[in-house]
């Protein structure tokens, strides 16, 4: 199609105006796309069709008006036309932000590099008119071979030279693009090699890679023996924290601290026996978290802590105020999927009992399991034969709870008072309701029987 206008200047001005208007329209479309990103999933197709329709109508209307209207009709339209269209601003793709402050830049005689935590961008300058078919690239886990094809192959990067670290081959690629002009005014070409560094994580739990604290992410260059070819190298050096200077900024003089005002239970992993006036005495092994009951309740509420009860035989249970005795779960330090039977087969009876628990259980004779069980059974039978005991019980108090006369298990014949007395003699926990006490005693008797069998 040829424009029927004899005015070449008008044709040029209309072309500039059309280009500028389309640029502004596309810029608004890009801005709208960025602002409407949260709604893109449900309106992407409708928005794209609308943009295409508006663009097509605008172009057709402008071309039609150019062919049919006289020159004078465009005076107002061209009044504010710029002489040169502005450059199109294309929103860049999201860039991965490194989680650690590692990296630096450097330059050598034939290449430059920019290093980040997990990647190194290597840039090389090649002659003008170089295309992708003129490049020969080969990557391994220890080096990169890059050659420029022609009458004779020109080695840009020698594959026999080993890099400073391991390379992830799957994440390493190269590209060629236009570079800056040289001194003669010719536009040069640049080859960009994106090297992904290979590090072995210590854990990938939850899809998150965790690395050891001693992992050195900085290569500091491409090759270990590059002192002769590197002209500049700029890396940020981590500064050692000056504790005195940092404390002085906070208004604290660490040389003049009144230790009598410091809560020492926050720092040590040892408990100290104190007398009535609070004077520290002999050290006692253990751990003092020094938290209040309200803080513990909050931790349990949000699932950050669990209340675990350890029995005298080493077995542990998770305590939940909202669950019954039948729903009580065994606790295992090896994980929730490890059952008690598996621990027993592996020879793990229970977690070690600390010194405090041992001292409480010092007077308990658990060597003869059968004798202990017989004593408990005999005491239960004596209580069952004593009819006056049931008559003296009161249903208004938990300590005087009535027993079931039809119960077959001797433990069910025990009252709360007797249950607590037996548990106290065995060195076990005596808190809880009657059902909890009975279950605790059954578990203790069962553990004694298992020890006697082994």
From TrEMBL:
InterPro entries: CS_dom (IPR007052), HSP20-like_chaperone (IPR008978), SAP_dom (IPR003034), SAP_dom_sf (IPR036361). Residues 411-445 form the SAP domain. Pfam families: CS, SAP. Residues 384-411 are annotated as: Disordered. PROSITE patterns: SAP (PS50800). This is SAP domain-containing protein. The lineage of its organism: Eukaryota, Sar, Stramenopiles, Ochrophyta, Bacillariophyta.
